[in-house]
Amino acid sequence: VWINIAATESSSEPKIVLGSGCKIGRRSTISSKNRIVLEGDVLLAPSVLIMDHNHEFSDPELPIHAQGVTEGGTITIERNCWLGYGSVVVCTHGQLTLGRNSVVGANAVVTRSFPPFSVVAGNPAKLLKNYDQQTRRWIRSNA
Q1: Residue 108, SS3?
Q2: Maximum CA pair distance of the chain?
Q3: Rg of the chain on CA atoms, in Å
Q4: Nearest alpha-carbon partner for 138 in 97, 87, 102
Q5: Residue 124, preceding bond cis, omega within 30 degrees?
Q6: pLDDT digits (tens, 9 = 90+) for 23-49
Q7: Which of 42, 49, 63, 130 is most solvent-facing, going by the fewest CB within 10 Å?
Q8: Measured distance CA(88)–CA(7) in Å, rounded
């Protein structure tokens, strides 16, 4: 597992917060410039990537590694979420929240927020199902 804090101005606020009971699969990467929060009991399969920024690439004449990183955003993965094998969660600006008790399919690329009790998959990730707490059933999305 690689846990990385991008070099920026110093701050007393933690850049990465791992809640109680989090499980992080092999070969996973969490890289933060601003703030990434994994609430309690979040489960990451192997090879998951979570980044709240990206490499800058605005000048094609310069090597990408020499351009620094983008401003980025923040990521919150609420409690009891499960991120499948090879999934990616990346936030290039603003706030991305994956609501509690959600599932991200294998190799999905999450670039926007989803509500609690969601099943998402694809590139870019799309909502496939939501859990209806009244009927206690998973309902397919029409989206």
Answers
A1: coil
A2: 57
A3: 16
A4: 102
A5: yes
A6: 999 999 999 999 999 999 999 999 999
A7: 63
A8: 22
For residues 143 and 139, give the distance between their C-alpha atoms in angstroms, rounded to a whole number: 12
How many residues are listed for the chain in this entry?
143
Please report the sign of the dihedral spanned by the C-alpha atoms of residue 11, residue 70, residue 18, residue 78. Answer: positive
Q: Phi and psi at residue 75, in whole multiples of 5°? A: -130, 135
Find out whether 71 and 53 touch, Cβ atoms under 8 Å: yes
For 90, the token pair is: 């990346």
Output the six-digit token pair for 62: 């310069």
Looking at residue 13, its pLDDT comes to: 85
Structure tokens at 99: 């609501």
Query: Torsion-angle region of residue 40: left (phi > 0), alpha (psi -120 to 50) or beta?
Result: beta
**Cα–Cα distance between 38 and 17 in angstroms, integer?**
6
C-alpha span between 132 and 139 (Å, rounded): 7
* pLDDT, tens digit, 9 for 90 and up, residues 87-116: 999 999 999 999 999 999 999 999 999 999
